[in-house]
Amino acid sequence: MVELKQDTENKILEAAKIVFLQKGMDGARMQEIADEAGINKALLHYYFRSKEKLFEAVFKDVLGDFFPKISEVMLSDLHLFDKIKHFVKEYSNLLYGKPYIPGFIIMEVNRNPQAITNYFSSYAEKIAKANLPALAKQILEMSKNGEIRPVDPRHLIMSMLSMIVFPIISKPIVKVILFQNNDEDYNQFLQQRADYVSDMIINSIKIK
Amino acid sequence: MVELKQDTENKILEAAKIVFLQKGMDGARMQEIADEAGINKALLHYYFRSKEKLFEAVFKDVLGDFFPKISEVMLSDLHLFDKIKHFVKEYSNLLYGKPYIPGFIIMEVNRNPQAITNYFSSYAEKIAKANLPALAKQILEMSKNGEIRPVDPRHLIMSMLSMIVFPIISKPIVKVILFQNNDEDYNQFLQQRADYVSDMIINSIKIK
DNA sequence: GTCTATACACTGATAGAC
DNA sequence: GTCTATCAGTGTATAGAC
Predict the structure, then answer these.
(1) Which residue is nearest to nucleotide C1 (CA to C1')?
(2) Is any Cβ of chain A less than 8 angstroms from the Cβ of B130?
(3) Residues 140-159 of B with CB under 8 A from A
(4) B165 and A167 in contact by Cβ < 8 A?
(5) Does the pLDDT of residue A202 top 80, yes or no?
(6) Confidence (pLDDT) at B5
(7) Domains B2-59 and B67-205 share a fold
(8) pLDDT, averaged across chain A
(9) How many inter-chain contacts (A to B, CB under 8 Å) are there?
(10) For the domain bounded by B67-205, which CATH number is listed?
């Protein structure tokens, strides 16, 4: 094989992502990652010293795809209702395309809660000092104008995240309980859900 | 040790529960379970033939604590709003006491989605034939009376579950992102949340 | 950079004494 | 029923040839 270093490294990372996302850190096997990448086990250690390091690289990569989006929309100068609609729509679509990722993150963070603190301390600071106050201000003004009932911005964000993410990570369970394990029905349900969630959240704060 | 068979078996189950809940099937070690139970590794295999069998026993046990509650409240003859309040309150309290369980279930179901189908096929049938129609009927009547806007009962259930469960399983992440990793703030937030969720869901369907 | 071969540690499981 | 000792298998990691 006449591969450039960069290419092999990426090939490994992609393979590792596939295996780690499905099996998790503990369940994944270096052999399986090597097979998936079409290379040898020893090469994994040549590029990433250990399984732990390889996992770390994958984890950071995965996280980077998802969390910045949370604050992105929140900082825009859209009308609050449009912010909500936009965020729900964007995030839903993002997740429907990569449904295995939220469960993976939750699983791994639960396994090692310490790690998350390190990865996100700077990011959390940004949200605390920019996003939350901006959102709080917007909410306060609207409630003064009698357009909405006042609401804690953290509850608002938590509600949106909950209603978007939970149906994805709980799919195998809820699909059985509420949809007799019918995959098509469940996917259709998910597709309706983005609009339903936007309406629900807006309705809950709107003064009619 | 002069222990009765029953006692040792329960001691093992409790120890296994502790370890499996924290580490998951793949991360758990038989040695650690034995230590936790204060007995020897060989005894684990004497009582439960294999790690897989032991895990299965723990998993079924854990599931049994949580899912029957979902349909219980739904079948009562309470007013819809009271049903919602009651369910949210009960389920929240249940989860706050055992916060590690939802994440565990989701992790393991993701690892082996096939298993869940077997465990819950009969239960899912019951919900499909009794709970959902009953709830749908109640919603239909109230919307005819002009009390609420019509809503798909599955969306309603999904919303409640999402808003209750997600803040628990995502705690390590959200606590860092929105609460600067302050545990006390987060717990306080969770305690307010049950009332917030009830109000929000009711407000979203109520016609004022 | 990439491979084969292998070292080394760990883990689930069993055998056998008490 | 409970223990100690041990086996067999598997997994991460390294050595060394090309």
Answers:
(1) A5
(2) no
(3) 152, 154-155, 157-159
(4) no
(5) yes
(6) 63
(7) no
(8) 92
(9) 165
(10) 1.10.357.10
Q: Phi and psi (nearest 5°) for B148?
A: -135, 165
User: With a CB-CB cutoff of 8 Å, which residues 68-87 of chain A face chain B?
Assistant: 70
CA distance A106 to chain B (A): 6
Q: What pLDDT does A68 receive?
A: 81
Structure tokens at B92: 């929240």
Q: Is the pLDDT of residue B3 over 60?
A: no
Closest residue to C5 measured CA to C1′? A42
CA dihedral over A91, A94, A95, A101, signed as positive or negative? negative
* Best mutation target, B169, B182, B196, to test chain A (most A CBs within 10 A): B169
Q: Was domain B2-59 assigned CATH 3.30.70.580?
A: no
Distance from the B205 Cα atom to the nearest Cα atom in chain A, whole angstroms: 8
Which residues 6+ apart lie within 8 Å of B19 measured at CB?
Answer: B28, B29, B32, B33, B36
* Residue A67 scores a pLDDT above 90: no
Nearest residue to A201 via CA among A142, A145, A136, A157? A157
Give the nucleotide nearest to B39 (CA→C1'): D2
Query: Predicted confidence band at A5 (pLDDT cuts at 50, 70, 90)?
Result: low
Give, in order, the Cα–Cα distances in Å from B13 to each of A26, B2, B17, B31, B62: 22, 18, 6, 14, 11
- What is the overall mean pLDDT for chain B? 92
**Do B83 and B73 form a contact (C-beta atoms < 8 A)?**
yes
The pTM is what? 0.94
Provide the residue ranges of all domains of chain A, joining segments of one domain with +: 2-59, 67-205
Query: What per-residue confidence (pLDDT) applies to B65?
Result: 81
Instruction: Tell me the pLDDT band of A4, cut-offs 50, 70 and 90.
Output: low
What mean pLDDT comes out for the span B123-142?
90
